[in-house]
Amino acid sequence: MDLYDCLNDEFYDNIDKTNKESRDLSLAMDKQKNILLAKKYMVESIYRSANIEGIGMTFPETQTICDGMSVSGHTIDEINAINDLKNAWKWLFQNIDNNINVDCLCALNRNAGCLRDKYDEPIRVPLFNGKNYYPPLPKSKEDINKDITNIIKNKNINAAFELFCYICKGQFFNDGNKRTATLITNMYMIQNGFGIFSIPVDKKLDFYNNLTLFYSDNNNKENLINFLKTNCITGNNNQK
Hints:
Order of helices and strands: HHHHHEEHHHEHHE
Helix content: 55-70%
Structural class: mainly alpha
Number of helices: 10
Radius of gyration: 20 Å
Distance between the termini: 41 Å
Largest sheet: 2 strands, antiparallel
Number of strands: 4
């Protein structure tokens, strides 16, 4: 290799290094924007998540509970669910740089906090056709971590919703699986500057139709992902 080739290699190495630093800086800026966006829309995300789970709170009621005050006309369990979501979002912000894994899922699921096992009652998920989906018991933590790592390695918006589908269909916890799936998806999206994910209340029926079709047949996953990408992202103008 002559001097020209050496200089040429060094020149392109410097370009690659500069491009990487630029990409890293851009990602860091996108993440910071996403954190601010998520804090701005946190109460709305909690309101939407609660309603998707069948907790009929209005937005003003959700805001009041998040502000630390009580509201009438709701059960203690419903109010606690709102506070659990608020605390889960706080944990997410405090641990936003953590690797996404099964320990994050357990931390964000503030109802059970541990995976289902053989001593728990089987979960039954009603489907659109009158049948039921009976999810198997979760695999080991190591296997779940391998699955999550494989899903999110591509660093794109599809991976975010692949992760959501995986958590939802896995039904790893006795309660709050969709809430947990929404939170962990947001954690991944914030880390990568993809915007904020929440399901609009007026799209609840469409969401459940797509979700139950996916539960009944894995071939319907693409339709669910397309629905989520089209209707459930705030603050991302560069979807990939």
